[in-house]
């Protein structure tokens, strides 16, 4: 019995150590992504070395390879990850309002995208400038997710405005995304609250629900 109890204790300690190591590794990975987001936005993907990522995270360049095989892999995780987040988030909002008026879903979609643009200006800059640096497969994945996101928005916009064609709704959605994504850069001296309120008002007007 004592041997069994001792074995269980040792197993529990080993499991706890593994959990701690896994948590530390996950935290370091997130730190590297955060550093990369800042550096890629400031200097461009091609202006950042793997050494820079390691230095920013307080580890050596070889240690970065424990988490990512290359700086391209870091870029992939940033851009594919945010595209997946937007697409799945938009789908979830639409599903929640399946039995509501289209304007209810559109209201929440606008809030969702404005919040994204206000909180992730660095990712927007990286997307605009460095998408071409992604491997072809990942670039296609990003484009597919973006098309899906726009398409689902356009369907909601068209339902909210029955006299609009789906093509017209799609053009409006692209225009609204361009406005929302670029404004935080152009209005840096304005308060975040003012920018958010005005972006939402402008988006509602452009999408016919003002």
UniProtKB/TrEMBL annotation:
DNA-binding region, residue range(s): 49-68
Keywords, ordered alphabetically: DNA-binding
Pfam families reported in the protein's UniProt record: TetR_C_24, TetR_N
GO molecular function: DNA-binding transcription factor activity; transcription cis-regulatory region binding
InterPro entries, per database record: Homeodomain-like_sf, HTH-type_TetR-like_transc_reg, HTH_TetR, KstR2_TetR_C, Tet_transcr_reg_TetR-rel_C_sf
Domain HTH tetR-type: 26-86
Chain positions covered by the region annotation Disordered: 1-21
Protein name stated in the entry: TetR/AcrR family transcriptional regulator
Species of origin: Brevibacterium aurantiacum
């Amino acid at each position: 019995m004592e041997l069994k109890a001792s074995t269980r204790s040792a197993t529990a300690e080993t499991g706890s150590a593994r959990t701690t190591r896994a948590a530390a590794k996950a935290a370091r990975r997130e730190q590297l992504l955060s550093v990369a987001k800042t550096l890629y936005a400031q200097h461009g993907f091609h202006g950042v070395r793997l050494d820079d990522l390691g230095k920013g995270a307080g580890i050596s360049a070889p240690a970065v390879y424990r988490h990512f095989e290359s700086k391209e892999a870091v870029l992939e995780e940033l851009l594919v990850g945010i595209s997946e987040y937007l697409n799945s988030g938009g789908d979830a909002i639409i599903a929640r309002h399946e039995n509501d008026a289209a304007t209810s879903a559109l209201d929440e979609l606008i809030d969702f995208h404005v919040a994204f643009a206000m909180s992730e200006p660095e990712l927007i800059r990286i997307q605009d400038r460095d998408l071409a640096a992604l491997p072809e497969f990942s670039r296609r994945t990003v484009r597919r997710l973006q098309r899906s996101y726009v398409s689902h928005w356009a369907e909601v916009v068209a339902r909210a405005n029955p006299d609009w064609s789906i093509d017209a709704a799609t053009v409006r959605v692209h225009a609204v995304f361009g406005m929302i994504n670029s404004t935080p850069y152009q209005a840096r001296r304005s308060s975040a609250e003012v920018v958010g309120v005005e972006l939402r008002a402008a988006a509602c007007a452009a999408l016919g629900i003002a």
